[in-house]
Structures are given as structure tokens and as C-alpha cells.
Amino acid sequence: MTVRLQREDFDAAAEAAKLTHGRTDIGAVVTFTGICRGSESGDPIKALTLEHYPGMAEAEIARHVDDAKARWPLLGVTVIHRYGRMQPGENIVLVVTASSHREAAFAAAEFLMDYLKTRAPFWKQVEAAGEKSWVAAKDTDDAAADRWSKSRDAAE
Question: Which structural domains are found in the chain, ordered by start?
């Protein structure tokens, strides 16, 4: 398991290759890369700034990676989340999940992204049209994340 928070960019292909290097037990790798958009609802975005609590953010992400590993038979996980100021087209987040079969790799990647989008201790500020504003949570993102707690409750 790899969890990193960093200012600098990452290479998604290199991270996936690192996770699978020399492994013959992995049959599926799912990668998701979140990228800074250049507009939101038609309005141009100049930049996005992400802030976090060092130490706490890594621990919380690691806790959710452990939860994903308990739910699905994962053989490897990498989560890299950037912080600081990013411009449109730059990478923000990478989630790589590996398993023997695709179903577990896809489900775990989606679970982790839903968590990162809604519950990870990050704060997002958007620069647009000469103004800066903090981004509020979206009901649709919360609903996507809530389905995982419902599926966990149904399984217990």
C-alpha cells in the first residue's frame, strides 16, 4: 500500500508499473487520475488550490485504503493526492488498485475515489474571474459515497 500527499506532479503509468512490477498474481489494474478542469458549469477556472492537514490526511486516507482491502481481495493499492495550486490540465489525484480480477479492482477504485471526493480532509479553493471561492460539498458526491456505507450495512 502506498499513500502519498505531495505538491509535485506524478506519472500514473510509472506508478501502476511500480505496483505490478514482477507480480504474476495480479490480473487486473484499475487506474483513475483526477485532472483539474478548465471550467465549471461553463465558467472558466484559472486555478485550483488544495489544502490539507499534514499527518491527519495521510492517516485518514490509509484508514480508508485498509477498509477497501477488507472489502475486496486487493493485491496492491496506490493513492497519491496533490496539494497546493494547480492549473487546468494538471493532475490532482491518482488511485491505482490491483487484484486478481477486475470486479474487485474497479469497485475498490470507485470506493476510494468516492471517499476522497467527499470525506478526505482536503479543502478546495477555485480561482475564477478574478475571485477565489471555497468549494462546497455536492449532494451528488455525498450520495455516491453514502451507497458504500449502505452496502456495508447490508453485508453485516
Answer: 2-148 (3.90.1170.40)
